[in-house]
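B., you asked whether I could sanity-check this one before it goes into the benchmark set. Here's the sequence:
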Amino acid sequence: MSSFSFDLTVLETFGKETLEQAPRKVALEVFSRVVKKTPVKTGRARGNWQVSVGSPVDGVLDVEDKAGGATISAITNGIESWEPIKAAIFLSNNVPYIGALENGRSAQAPDGMVKTTLSEYRGIVNDVARETGK
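And here's what the prediction gave me:
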């Protein structure tokens, strides 16, 4: 199983009015980038990114999503119901080979999906801050 979470304390400088929306925007951008960077052969790995609140999910979906649109749509729905102040949000993928893909097994993502997205995290937060008028 591969999962990651991120520290929302970097968003403490946001005004109260954006405290709920800013983390959702950051989560959507981060999670969408991971999905889009996931190598595609059958679409199974890309289709198995799952969002959950409170704890990571277990299990593998019987889904193939080569384009990633359905997966990002499901992630969007999960993020919309998330209350950032009350619980952590997780993005998980439980296909048996997700670790190998993250570690460069595929030429489509030789540097991984999660690692490369996490290296972009600070820029994503800054972009969201600019969009929200901070």
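One thing to flag: The first helix runs from residue 21 to 37. Otherwise nothing jumped out at me.
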